[in-house]
Amino acid sequence: MYIRGSFTYKSALILTSERMRGLQAVLLQDFEELSYFATTIQKDKIMFGSLDELLSYDNFGRWKISTLNIEGRKTGGQSIEICFCSNMGLFVSFTSTAEIEYTLNDLQEITLIKKKICDYLNKCKAPYHIQSKLSWFSVSGCILVILLTLLLTGPRRSLAINFDSVEVVLLVVTCVLSSVWSVKFPSMWAKIFPPIVYCWGEEVAATDRRSKLRSNIFWGVFVAMVVGIVTTLITG
Question: What separation in angstroms does the CA of 129 have from each of 104, 156, 183, 195?
Answer without folding.
Answer: 31, 39, 24, 8
